[in-house]
Amino acid sequence: MRTGEIVVAVHISLGVIPNSFFPLSNVWLGVTAENQQTADERIPLLLQTPAAVRFASVEPMLGEVDLSEWLSPWHIETLIGMDHDPRCDGSCRYCPIPVPVEEFVPDPPMLDWVICGGESGPSARPMHPDWARSLRDQCQDAGVPFFFKQWGEWYPDRKGIYEQSDSVLFGNTVVHRIGKNGAGRLLDGVEHNEFPEVQNG
């Protein structure tokens, strides 16, 4: 636990900051998750922390990242007529034999927003377009806002337009180093500018 977390925890335990203050309506908390390992380490800790909005910034994206575990409520399958989610321990209101209200276990917190972007700077590493597409599709399937910030220094092949630029074969795609301003922020021709809705009051 870090110093700031200790101070908040002590203030809560002493009654200086009552639990009812959380989550604060103006506090958005996020973590950087540049690859699957950091996502697995940091996102569970983020979701344990009270906040009005919790988000993951997958930037710079250095590998494919699966966030689906933290995007959809456990029981969304039941709501749309699919099989009951196997993660449930049998104590939810959607089970065949519902438990009393006082024993109901709600779905755990989920991510409210996902940001994605490539790396910039002189030592920038390229981002494969399929990684960004996968993250976009995960968010769309779960109904979670997706913000594509930038390609960074490298841009995926676009019919040889950048033949004079630095180019390398990256997986099954040729990427060109044209700078973040030239690369822009269109993913498959679309600018993704989604933000979460904030409930006031």
Ordered list of secondary-structure elements with their pairings:
Layout: H1 3-13, E1 28-32, H2 36-47, E2 53-58, H3 76-79, E3 113-117, H4 129-142, E4 146-150, E5 154-156, E6 166-170, E7 173-177, H5 180-183, E8 186-187, E9 190-191
In short:
By secondary structure, this protein is of the alpha/beta class. It has helices spanning 3-13, 36-47, 76-79, 129-142, 180-183; strands at 28-32, 53-58, 113-117, 146-150, 154-156, 166-170, 173-177, 186-187, 190-191.
How would you sum up this structure, described in words?
By secondary structure, the chain is of the alpha/beta class. It has a domain at 26-77 and 108-193. It is 22% helix and 19% strand. It has helices spanning 3-13, 36-47, 76-79, 129-142, 180-183; strands at residues 28-32, 53-58, 113-117, 146-150, 154-156, 166-170, 173-177, 186-187, 190-191. It has a four-stranded parallel sheet with strand order 1-2-3-4, with helices on one face. Strands 5-7-6 form a three-stranded antiparallel sheet. Strands 8-9 form a two-stranded antiparallel sheet. A hairpin with a 2-residue loop joins strand 6 and strand 7 (173-177). The longest helix has 14 residues, at 129-142. The protein is elongated. Residues 1-17 and 75-82 have low confidence and may be disordered.
